[in-house]
Amino acid sequence: MLLAVLLGSQAVAWVGAAESVLDSAAEKASEPTAMTKVDFAKDVQPLLAKRCYACHGPDVSESGLSFVDRESALAEADSGEHAIVPGDVDASLLIARITSDDEYEVMPPEGDRMTAGEVAILRQWIADGATWQKHWAFEPLTNPQPPQLVEAAKVAADQAADVHPIDAFIRLDLAESGLNPNPPADRRSLIRRAYYDLVGLPPSQREIDEFVNDSSSDAYVRLIDRLLEMPQYGERWGRHWLDLVRYAETNSFERDNPKPNAWKYRDYVIKSFNEDKPYDEFVREQIAGDELDVVTPETLTATGYYRLGIWDDEPADPLQARYDELDDIVATTGQVFLGLTINCARCHDHKIDPIPQTDYYSMLAFMADVTTYGRRGDETSNNQIDVSSPELIDQYERLDKERREVEAEKQAIEQAGIVKMSAEDQRATEDRKRDRDRVLRKNLKQHLDETQWARYEVLRDELERIDGEQKSLPPRESVLGLASYQSLEPTYVMFRGNPHSPTDEVQPDYPELFNVDPPQLQVVSSSRGSAGRRRALADWMTQDEHRLTSRVMVNRVWQYHFGRGIVRSSNNFGQLGTPPTHPELLDWLANRFVQGGWKLKDLHRLLMTSQAYQMSSSNTPEGLAKDPNNDLYWRFDPRRLSAEEVRDAVLAVNGSLNRAVYGPSFYPKLSAEVLAGQSRPGAGWGDSSEEECNRRSVYIHVKRSLVTPLLEAFDFPEPDRSCEARFMTLQPGQALSMLNSDFIHEQASKLAESLDAVNLANDELARQAIGRVLAREATDDEVASADALIVDLQTNFHVQRKRAVELYCLTIMNWNEFLFLD
Amino acid sequence: MTLRRNSRNSFCGRTRREFLWQSGAGFGAAAMASMLTQDGFFAGSAGASDAARYASPLAAKPPHFAPKAKSVIFLFMYGGPSHIDTFDYKPSMVGMDGKTVEVKTFGRGGHRNQGRIVEPRWKFAQHGECGKWVSTLFPNLANHVDDIAFLHSMTADSPIHGSAMLMMNSGKILSGNPALGSWLNYGLGTVNENLPGFVVMLDPTGGPISGAKNWSSGFMPATYQGTVFRGTGAPILDLAPPKDLADGVQRRLIDSIQEANSRHMVDRSGHDDLASRIASYELAYNMQSTAPEAVDLTQEDQETLDLYGINQPRTDDFGRRCLLARRLVERGVRFVQLYSGGSHNDDNWDAHGDLEKNHNFHAGNTDKPIAALLADLKRSGMLDETLVVWGGEFGRQPTAEYAEGSGRDHNAYGFTMWMAGGGIKGGVSFGTTDELGASAVDHPLKVSNLHATILHQMGLDPNHLAYFFGGLDQKLVGVEHVEPIHQIIA
User: Fold this and answer.
1) pLDDT at A370 > cutoff 70
2) Which one, out of A90, A650, A721, B111, has a CA that is 20 to 30 A from the CA of A508?
3) For residue A627, what is the nearest residue in chain B, using CA coordinates?
4) Which A-chain residues 737-776 have CB contacts (< 8 A) with chain B?
5) Chain B contact for A799, CB < 8 A?
6) Which of B386, B193, B360 shows the shortest CA–CA distance to B291?
7) pLDDT beyond 90 at B154
8) First-to-last C-alpha distance (Å) of chain B
9) CB-based contact A196:A184 (threshold 8 Å)
10) Residue B489 has pLDDT above 90, yes or no
11) Measured between alpha carbons, how far is residue A414 from residues A404, A463, B136, B486 in Å?
12) CB proximity under 8 Å: B 122-141 to A
């Protein structure tokens, strides 16, 4: 097995060989050796997909050549020659073409040349016989068992008698490469890691001390259990899910109007994590919560999943907009639940994966009963599900019907008057209600005849009566979701993705690559009027033997714990994704996950009790030299806090964090400069109490055109598309907001106040502030620096003591130690 | 205040290593990590140093080929100026006012097949050696037609502000895609890390509709998004320390933070992100002096201020912003976007009501400053490497929107934009609309052609500038091959 290939670098190092594990692996592996075998899945297939498939792949076979399978690749091309002749590098035209110096000959014709390393891989592979494997992710799950480590490797790796199954998989590869895994992290780093990972908040000094001093063997396991039971667990892990489903509470575009009750979907997600809802159930509820055997307000809330995307209330081309909306759902569903970029097959067959265009439209056909989010003028009927009692619903509906009739008549009269008004007045009636009402109040009467006006007044009284009656009713409860259904029409493959060019009709069907029978569609839950198609999709996606659903989810959980997935491209398990670093481990985890009832909390326990998770994050020269990307997990990857963790930690350490769970979102204070970017500064942004503003960041109102700057600076995801993994940038905007924003100065002041900092001696202040912010004892150096800083500020810069101690508190919250986890 | 030598060495005294933060986000996102420092790392606090260099997402990158332009100034006439009242001369419409004609239009009022002609409300005259017809709305700008290439056959996919703004800024009618400026940041990086690479300056009446979506970096890291720059006060959000802090306090605080960070790094060798974060504080500090200097117009002489119409009530705001744009470009900013008009209705070029009142106002505010910008760039030799782009998200219809009045609805079937400098031919008019200006006729151009031309002048191949996301190589110009407008390239 080829263990480390530094693709793209000038010097290609071949390290390690399976045979060397038993005899002084470390020594051997440190020297580049001749490559013995190339791994098709890891080394060759990604190259072919990335560099060749666009012209010689599933969609196009230029010059009669395709590399999708061995038969096609070995076949005679239009030229009469062979691209690949197994075992004969010189006769293989592929090698000649990728190494050609002739600019008309060289392949690929566009983009960078293949590197020396890439050429070497292909040469070796052909020399070895050009064997082919099917793409791992499109094959059924395998049933690997944790390897029995050979004695030498086991002892070298760890003295412990029982090796955690995850570590068994990981250490096999480490031993082969001659790397040793890091020793365990110190207890303090470990508890901090566990707290942030599971609940997104820092442990207090007391909690750390208790853990550090608890020598019982199950102290760590109990810690994990305790964290998993905290409601903050759902807030932290729910947010991961919200990234994936591009959760936002507004529609984007000109008006960027709010999506009423979107927060109930957010709470549904948080609750589902807190209750350890089996993942298969969680999937079924979101895909078909309105079509399950038992439909509840909760499962209806889950269908909010279909309502989270962007929505143009004023599309230039309504049919295009309808298909764009469905595309957004198909793209998100494919990537999030299946790790498939089905969306790439909208206009033509997928260029890389075996997903023909018909697959895209067959998938779209499952969603055929999903109505558009709304209509301009009625932004609620399609998406607000009334979950109140039937009697109350009836009463409201009767009044609503009356109101609609009265409104329609009233507006007709208004329009009759408006058309006689001046252009400016006409224009004013078309936009803001306030302007319209003003014009109507002032000018309507004079443009109506007496009969019209008399009728108009009657209608106004009538509306008042209806409003009064409705106000006397108890409020009804609505949730965001699928509140109405599109009547079924045939679904067609659209020529080049153009919704105005339908071609062949398709039926709802699973992607071809799964090689399963088409769904047996029955009309289910017709009482609500849905088509039953999404139920079939949901049932299929959550079959125990489904080859992607479980793999994709365990990979995500792994990613959120370890910083990167076993498959790094966690939304793309296709051939342009990154191959798994530990494929057997992935399948083993997926099997465990399904056999254990798709339970996430068990999965957390399993992952976190591995030594791989508990390792130190320290670097070793050998590790950095041989595996700088840590593909093999010789260390635990350190990380910066996420946007929410930064803000929540600041609130936590100064004692102002409001831990209230669930409920409507809040609006943090935004400065005038930030609001100035809006066409109507302040529009769509509310005013929340200080208490509300001290809640956790997951409860911040997500307005698509106005993302809270502090969160944005720390890589809060753009909410229009599914985010599989957040960026982790380190840029000056972050420094500026942590040094100068109103928010950080307020919080620093609160921290100082909570410590009574003004009245403490500088050394005592340093001890207490560091204790609070970093949850550890201050060192002598730190105490001396604190004193030097505060004295300097007071004497040389003439800063008042109160402000000087606040500024000191602010500096600690800027330390790398506060923002990074070991 | 100095940092101890040994602690500094722990992160400065080593060779740079290729380092990719593995965000797990696939090919495109692999390298979006560390912010680097420039030469003189820590110069402010610790004297000379051995200048570590880290891979920055904004580090200058080589273009695909030799560029003609180094910077772009995009003068965004938000709301949609009427082409037939400005640069697209329609002599045959003279005398047709009020006539009902058969003409297909599509605007916010929907599709129509006929309408009442609103004759262009301004007189046209020929200017320059090229003899370009320009209306009296732009008396100053008319003197520069020999430096300008007019694109009369522009079309857009939407005649609705929301989606059309997104289209002009990001190439797509749907939100969530990176803006043109973000693509340039991504493709070229910046040559001055002390300033943002993509700057947006808004109209005093407010931002455009959809606000920050217009300068979003979409699926790319936020590092590439536009930074809103203000001409008064602190130019950038949170740039200035709170007012009560005396000079030097911020430096002292940063020194204290860096001292702690250096101690923290001692046991964490090889953890490049820690060093990158340290560097980001130095960069932030440098920005605090660089950005205010860039917006300090007291460095300009009176003649220049007068040229731009600064301190004259109508032109003061846009004049200042045009002058700031020149100063930012001089300092290496890649992409500066100025909005003429903000908020809604007649606060921008969206002349649905009284066309004359609206366009007299907005043209009067911008004509002199824009002419000054071209003149100023030209006299300093900067016009050759600065691409100036003018236009809105669409144009306006030849017919009236309402039964009465001169207001025109939106028109995405044909409209005018222009470009100057940055290797673009002067005195050229390309493409035409029909005799009413209702639709593009000769050489219809898409927004992607405009974007392709801008990228091309900046040294980037529009069909190769790609970012892998969502399973696709995403491009500003879309998946189909797009040609720049070769006919206007010098």
Assistant:
1) yes
2) A721
3) B19
4) 737, 739-741, 745
5) yes
6) B193
7) yes
8) 55
9) no
10) yes
11) 15, 15, 40, 53
12) none
**Residues in chain A within 8 Å Cβ distance of B245:** 799, 807
Could you tell me if B176 lies within 8 Å of chain A, comparing CB atoms?
yes
Q: How far off is chain B from A630, nearest CA to CA, in Å? A: 9
Does A331 touch chain B if contact means CB atoms closer than 8 Å? Answer: yes
Q: In chain A, pLDDT over 90 holds for what percent of residues?
A: 77
CB B457 within 8 A of CB B465: no
pLDDT value for B331: 96
Contacts of B283 in chain A (CB under 8 A): 731-732, 735
Best probe of the A interface among B14, B20, B22, by most A CBs < 10 A, is B22
Note the pLDDT tens digit of each residue in B218-264.
Answer: 999 988 999 999 877 788 999 999 999 999 999 999 999 999 999 99
Q: What is the DSSP letter of B340?
A: E
- Give yes or no for a contact between A212 and A659, defined as CB atoms under 8 angstroms apart: no
Determine whether the interchain pair A803/B244 forms a contact, defined as Cβ–Cβ distance below 8 Å. Answer: yes
The answer to whether B107 contacts chain A (CB < 8 Å) is: no
pLDDT band at A524 (very low <50, low <70, confident <90, very high): low
Q: Is the dihedral of CA A634, A640, A642, A645 positive or negative?
A: positive
**ipTM of the shown complex:** 0.86
Interface of A with B in 700-729 (CB under 8 A): 704-707, 709, 712-713, 715, 718, 720-722, 724-729
- Over 60: is that where the pLDDT of B3 sits? no
Taking CB atoms and an 8 Å limit, are A578 and B22 in contact across chains? Answer: no
Torsion on CA atoms A721, A723, A728, A729, rounded to nearest 10: -10
pLDDT digits over B416-474, tens only?
Answer: 999 999 999 999 999 999 999 999 999 999 999 999 999 999 999 999 999 999 988 99
Cβ partners under 8 Å of residue A539, min gap 6: A284
d(CA B206, CA A536): 49
Q: Has residue A293 got a pLDDT over 50?
A: yes
Hey, are the CB atoms on B26 and A713 less than 8 Å from each other? no
Residues B161, A254: C-beta atoms closer than 8 Å: yes
343-362 of A, contacting B, C-beta below 8 A? 343-344, 347, 352
Question: What stretches of A527-619 show up as alpha helix (H) in DSSP?
Answer: 533-541, 549-562, 583-595, 600-608, 611-614
Closest alpha carbon to A697 in A225, A204, A243, A228: A243
Determine which of A736, A793, A819 to mutate to test the interface with B (most B C-beta atoms within 10 Å): A736
Among residues A736, A213, A313, A679, the alpha carbon closest in space to that of B214 is found at A679
Strands of the sheet with B71-77, listed across from one edge: B227-228, B198-201, B335-340, B71-77, B386-391, B415-420, B148-154, B428-430
- Residue whose tokens read 């089996």: A278
Distance from CA of A416 to the nearest CA of B (A): 14
- If pLDDT is split at 50, 70 and 90, which confidence band does B353 have? very high
Query: What integer best gives the mean pLDDT of chain B?
Result: 88
Chain B contact present for A674, CB below 8 A:
yes
The torsion defined by the Cα of A126, A127, A129 and A134, in degrees rounded to 10, comes to -40
SS3 B474: strand
Q: Assess contact for B324 and B188: CB atoms under 8 A.
A: no
- Give the closest residue to B308 by CA, choosing from B329, B335, B281, B327: B327
The verdict on a CB contact (< 8 Å) between B25 and A727 is: yes
Q: Is B206 helix (H, G, I), strand (E, B) or coil?
A: strand
Q: Which residues contact A134 (CB under 8 A, 6 or more apart)?
A: none
Which helix (H) or strand (E) segment holds residue B150: the answer is: strand B148-154
Task: Report whether pLDDT(A15) > 70.
Answer: no
Q: How confident is the model at residue A155 (pLDDT cuts 50, 70, 90)?
A: low
pLDDT score of B64:
93
